Fold:
Amino acid sequence: QHPYSLTLSFFQHALNGGIRRYHVASVLCQRAKVAMSHFEPNEYINYEKLEKNINIVRKRLDRPLTLSEKIVYGHLDDPAKQEIERGKTYLRLRPDRVAMQDATAQMAMLQFISSGLPKVAVPSTIHCDHLIEAQSGGEKDLRRAKDINQEVYNFLSTAGAKYGVGFWKPGSGIIHQIILENYSYPGVMLIGTDSHTPNGGGLGGICIGVGGADAVDVMAGIPWELKCPKVIGVKLTGKLSGWSSPKDVILKVAGILTVKGGTGAIIEYHGPGGETGHSLWVAEMLLIAVRMATICNMGAEIGATTSIFPYNTRMKKYLDKTGRADIAALADEFQQYLVPDAGCQYDQVIEINLSELKPHINGPFTPDLAHPVSDVGAVAEKEGWPVDIRVGLIGSCTNSSYEDMGRSAAVAKQALAHGLKCKSKFTITPGSEQIRATIERDGYAQILRDVGGLILANACGPCIGQWDRKDIKKGEKNTIVTSYNRNFTGRNDANPETHAFVTSPEIVTALSIAGTLKFNPETDFLTGADGKKFKLEAPDADELPRLDFDPGQDTYQYPPKDGSGQHVDVSPTSQRLQLLEPFDKWDGKDLEDMLILIKVKGKCTTDHISAAGPWLKFRGHLDNISNNLLIGAINIENGKANSVRNALTQEFGPVPDTARYYKKMGVKWAVIGDENYGEGSSREHAALEPRHLGGRVIITKSFARIHETNLKKQGLLPLTFADPADYNKIHPVDKLSIVGLADFAPGKPLKCIIKHPNGSQETIMLNHTFNESQIEWFQAGSALNRMKELQQKSS
Structure:
């Protein structure tokens, strides 16, 4: 029996006609099952169920639906009875699949092992991309990573084999590029243990970043909970041209909404037309799926739940080119469910005229500080930021497509023609083995080497701090420009004085050639080796290779049909891996006289709470990685990082040491945070660590979505000030009591009593977003504990 894709190919060639070919594809789609991916031939796309659920919900709500609503509500566990109110109710959903990168997969798989379940319930994959340190170049760095991380890779490989999870080996590429090439498709709901999972929205899917505990729920076959997202519409008009790029669209949106403006919402991009107009406009004006993926990817930087574009002909073209013509043909049949309804309503609408959009560069230290490239040099001089660029870095999950590499090579080729190379150091990170092999074959890689570039491994590398940087000393003030997505303090190289700016790959390349932030490629001239001035032309490149993609080396490990006999080894003496012990259950009492571990001043991302870089090697060992707890957060008491007062000894010391001391003494503690606490990466270690070291409550002005959920999953209480000004009432030397927990209920504020050292006290109110099942997580000690309780009851 022939696979559907081969059967379709045979009929298309036999008929040799456009309209007749499409008709036969349509007929076959109605009769045949289409696999979700080449790697799971027996797992099928179920558009019929999506259609059925959407029609049930549309009839109930009696209004047009946005595209986001169609796909989200199309995956409801019970569409007939689910309460639906955007921004308020919690939805119970059935995602189609799970993806995990290797740094977060360790803890996710350790939790899944603890669940006692024999096999994952939905298609799931592990991607080895986070543990490869950029040092001397792709091949050497990959060999070194395989040697250093052998124990972890073996654990993930054998755990994948035992529990039915596909395993992408180190060197295969960045998780989000692999998903785009193989797993994302119009209408899919995919959750991934990485905050940039929304990259898959470039192919019309709802792809959401989550913590490992959420992934465990889905892999266990439990309905996944998500607060019903609001929908922000971004209306795009006009057309990109010149040096403007898709990166400039999201940099502009980030400048408008800021790092928390998208919290609790899906960003839905659309054009000026109706149902058909959306699709045709997107195809004509933005051109290609990978450009849409870039925009969706960086939606994580504004706190969005995810981002999405409507299905269109360019998505179809990308699916065709990546060997998924059968999926594209099926999506054509169900297109009305893969675009928004005419007349649908958004909670907020932003309009951007692409014809007026200028190249942007955002930073330093935050991805929402937007500047036109034409202005950034003057702004840098005014602010005292270094204008000389030490390193330019292109790639990352945001910008490492074939077209991205081609546009950068087009800029580099012009410089080479005039005898110039990069004045700055220059690195290139291919997004996948397929991209690496194809740009090698087509000559882009050699052009980028010739201009002075170093090709790194197909991995995250410097974007996540995996960079053994040698050209500066720690504490040395310097500037780098990247095509990455985040530029928080110390993120790329662990140096708090590195001023990192984010922009498009072609602008990074141009600035690296010039060596300064003061260069504007739209207007400024360079001087060639012959002394003559010349101006760089706006780059152009093929959106997809003219030949088929070169797949490169085979880096995928299929899980066996029966993995029950597979042994998964975790040594009790390992410094990299540690089996998990259940967290203690709530004792039924109020949380009284808690000490304050730290009152955080200003921005506190998950990088501040649980640093990456050299700490990534401990992601599978909870006790060891807890030694980085909050070491990047600024203590309001002394303005220092990793220096807090031990309330029992009155001595100042590192945050993790102080937390361990409190735990040893049996003292519960709390953290006080500012706005958008926990923004950035999805890493659940930022929730596991405080729980492991005795934390009970995190009180802030506001939370980032993923981190708030992660805290709940681990049995902590994430609470927010009913009056944000009450942040100023709490001092690091105070004691806190959370009272009324016996009556803990959804929507009911909790009372906090602040006890000052002078004996006085005052009471403030704290809000929360817990629903009934999440309260059960807290009472059981964690979501995993609650899952086990339910399993025991059912058996």
